[in-house]
TrEMBL record:
Domain MacB-like periplasmic core: 25-252
Membrane association type: Multi-pass membrane protein
The species this protein was found in: Pedobacter paludis
Top-level taxon in the UniProt lineage: Bacteria
PANTHER family according to UniProt: ABC TRANSPORTER PERMEASE YTRF, MEMBRANE COMPONENT OF TRANSPORTER-RELATED
Domain ABC3 transporter permease C-terminal intervals: 294-407
Record's subcellular location: Cell membrane
Gene Ontology annotations for the cellular component aspect, listed alphabetically: plasma membrane
Keyword RNA-binding among record annotations: no
Family: Belongs to the ABC-4 integral membrane protein family.
Principal location: membrane
Name assigned to this protein: ABC transporter
Length: 413
């Protein structure tokens, strides 16, 4: 009970100090407020940005490996060696499909952007066209809001059929049912058999809303699918029964065997995976977090000295009260905790103000830019935790000096 009484009295003293010396206290709390606002605002923005990016990365598949000519992250390997690498080919794809054991799906894909699709007098510009083999629905995560996926015969025979994004379907057909209608793309007429479910914009541009998907065997008759301009790649979705490292190891061995690379020779292909992007994002965001700590730390340091100054003044003003308390039997630890709790209370007030401003900042940014910034519970706890730590450190020495006062001398003052 004595702890609760101490906390209650400390909050009362803190509010009395705030009420009696509003300007002095608010100016002292300002640095704490700015520091907490800076740190938590940076962390909230980074967490929201990281979550948005990570959701985009996750759409690529956490257990998916992309066999490509160019790596996503360059090392010390000379660029001209990358230039001499071959593009992933249909032969590579066929061999992997027949020999790969730890894969749930393997597809060969090409893509071309900035195309136009037409239906009667309507057209949609700036779309991307993807040609993919039959297992596209196994290597990519998507849902259909209407229609169906390609059949095996449609993929093998290269039938003129397509899946299209929700934005394209709306732009071409409006309120009409797009299934079974014929649109024109790449100079050919294709029948719409399915429409992707609307996904919305993401930060990596992986949305299918403005994408048209056609069978790779149909694309062969229109485009040179081995040309580098169409970014040929082989996508491998690893089995959930084994680790991604095992899938990568098997894939590396098979690709070296298919390309007849001798032991000791360098690979002439790149295996890209989402963990490479995630690691780069973690490094980048850690640097931003450190910057937030440094900038906010200076404000909090100044705020800590300000709170300590308030507490020394508070001890000076209440010296005779301390003497009376000690003469009535109050222990040193009681006086010590009383002033420490008062210091913590003041810092929590500053921290809550900082968190309130972060909340307003998040709402304004979300309303103005459309990018949702969320003040998470972890950041709220962090802000209050920092306030408690700063309050404890700042209030300890004034509280210690108050607890060591001689009661007779204190009353006499």
């Amino acid at each position: 009970m004595i702890i609760f009484r101490l906390i209650g009295e400390s909050f009362r003293f803190a509010f009395d100090a705030l009420r009696q010396n509003k300007l002095r206290t608010m100016l002292s709390l300002l640095a704490i407020t700015i520091g907490i606002f800076t740190i938590i605002a940076v962390f909230s923005a980074v967490d929201s940005f990281r979550a948005k990016l990570q959701s985009s990365v996750d759409k690529l598949g956490s257990n998916t490996i992309y066999v490509q000519k160019w790596p996503w992250i360059f090392g010390d390997y000379p660029w001209w060696k990358y230039m001499n690498r071959p593009q992933p080919s249909l032969r590579d794809f066929a061999s992997l499909r027949d020999r790969m054991e730890n894969a749930d799906g393997i597809t060969f894909e090409i893509s071309t952007g900035n195309r136009t699709i037409k239906y009667r007098s309507s057209s949609v510009e700036g779309i991307s066209v993807t040609g993919a083999s039959q297992d596209f629905n196994k290597t990519w995560s998507f849902e259909l809001q209407a229609g169906r996926y390609f059949t095996d015969n449609e993929s093998k025979n290269g039938s003129p059929v397509c899946l299209m994004g929700a934005d394209i379907a709306e732009g071409l057909f409006g309120s009409e049912d797009p299934i079974g209608k014929q649109a024109q793309i790449l100079g050919r007429r294709v029948t719409v058999v399915g429409v992707f479910k609307k996904e919305g914009e993401d930060m990596l541009g992986t949305s299918l809303d403005k994408s048209v998907n056609i069978p790779i065997n149909f694309a062969k008759g229109i485009l040179d699918i081995q040309n580098e301009r169409y970014n040929p790649q082989i996508t491998v979705r690893g089995s959930t029964k084994v680790s991604l490292e095992e899938v990568e190891s098997e894939l590396t061995g098979l690709m070296r065997s298919i390309h007849r690379i001798r032991p000791g020779q360098e690979d002439d292909f790149a295996l890209n995976k989402t963990t490479m992007i995630s690691n780069q994002l973690d490094t980048m965001f850690n640097m931003v977090n450190i910057a937030g700590w440094v900038i906010g730390g200076f404000s909090i340091l100044v705020g800590g000295f300000s709170i300590a100054n308030i507490m020394f003044v508070s001890v000076k003003e209440r010296t005779n009260i301390i003497g009376i308390q000690k003469s009535l039997g109050a222990k040193n630890y009681f006086i010590l905790l009383q002033f420490i709790f008062e210091s913590i209370s003041l810092c929590i007030l500053g921290g809550l103000l900082g968190l309130f401003f972060v909340f307003l900042f998040a709402k304004v940014i979300t309303a103005v830019s459309g990018f949702e910034v969320i003040l998470g519970l972890n950041n709220i706890i962090l802000g209050i935790g920092i306030s408690v730590i700063i309050g404890t450190i700042s209030g300890f020495w004034p509280a210690y000096s108050a607890s060591r006062l001689d009661p007779v001398e204190a009353i006499r003052s």
